[in-house]
Amino acid sequence: MASRSLISLGLPKASLVALTTYGYETIQDLLTAGSPEELSTQLKIPISEVHKIFASTQKLSAAPAVTLPLTQSAAAMAQPTQKFSTRFSGIDQLLGGGISLGQILEISGPPGCPKERVAINILTSFVEVGEHVIFVDCQNMTSPATISQVLKETPNMPHNCIQLVRYTKIQTLPELIMFMYKLPSLLASQPKTTLLILNSISFLFQFPRLSIATRNDHFERIMQSLTKASASRNVTVVTTSQLATKVLNADGSPGTFDTGGIGVMVPQLGSAYLPTGRTYRIILCPEGPTSGTAKLLASPSLQLKPGQTTERQPYSIASPSHLSALSDFYSA
């Protein structure tokens, strides 16, 4: 039943179009969609329509009826999935033990923090068990040679570990948007891919200056592609991003220095390009060359407003001596 097309639910045309636009094609996709409230916000349709969608999926179930409250996440109906470690115990704890297939993780932080290292660690965890990866470098931060060396120096890697990683370099924002348009067909041609890394994605939005409308259009395209990849293909997505200064008032609303606002560091792209119902957002705050604090900004079940307190965990870098590539790369 889970692999059945959404067309079989007999949904109103507007609801079906909204679902397919954001990558929801089967009933299985809906099982990881998040709560009805989150899906309503994402699809921009009334919450009453989302309730009808979930009710339709329950009617089709051939199993003994177990009615879940409609305020409960639909993901609760899915089976537990394997966790992939970031190889930072504190970050793994913020993620509930690691990142799962079909989830999205944004790692943000200032220059010098180990956000790229977290991405490489996740890549290593996937490749270690034979999973296929697409690594997209948006700022010439990580070369194919570096990735190859890390994999070769990591114990217990499969003999074909290098071949499991497809490396792509994107240098301009139009190239990124074109990549997003082509992502569904790319994943269809490489169905074994389970991890997509977009390294330094925020760098491409620095130039040229974009109008708010154009910027929002690009975010919408990226969110649609990432939602479809994670929901339809069960692909895990990891992005890394720089920080930017935002002026906020004491109540968390946007402000200016004239209104008594203070400058705070936030992820440069904000959250508009990420589907809230399946995304973790973490900021790394370095306190020294090898240690700092990881802060959870948001998760599929938690969306914080600016100024609210959040869960934090310490992290520390302890490079094993055999990972010389990591030592050289992250000291830069």
From TrEMBL:
A biological-process GO annotation: meiotic DNA recombinase assembly
Record's keyword terms, sorted: ATP-binding, DNA damage, DNA repair, Hydrolase, Nucleotide-binding, Nucleus
Organism: Crucibulum laeve
Pfam families: Rad51 (PF08423)
Gene Ontology annotations for the cellular component aspect, listed alphabetically: Rad51B-Rad51C-Rad51D-XRCC2 complex; Rad51C-XRCC3 complex; replication fork
Domain RecA family profile: 80-243
Superkingdom, natural source: Eukaryota
Cross-referenced PANTHER family: DNA REPAIR PROTEIN RAD51 HOMOLOG 3, DNA REPAIR PROTEIN RAD51 HOMOLOG 3 RAD51C
Compartments where located: Nucleus
GO MF annotation, one: ATP binding
PROSITE patterns associated with the record: RECA_2 (PS50162)
InterPro entries named in the record: HR_Repair_Mediator (IPR052093), P-loop_NTPase (IPR027417), Rad51_C (IPR013632), RecA_ATP-bd (IPR020588)
Name of the protein this chain belongs to: DNA repair protein RAD51 homolog 3
Keyword ATP-binding: yes
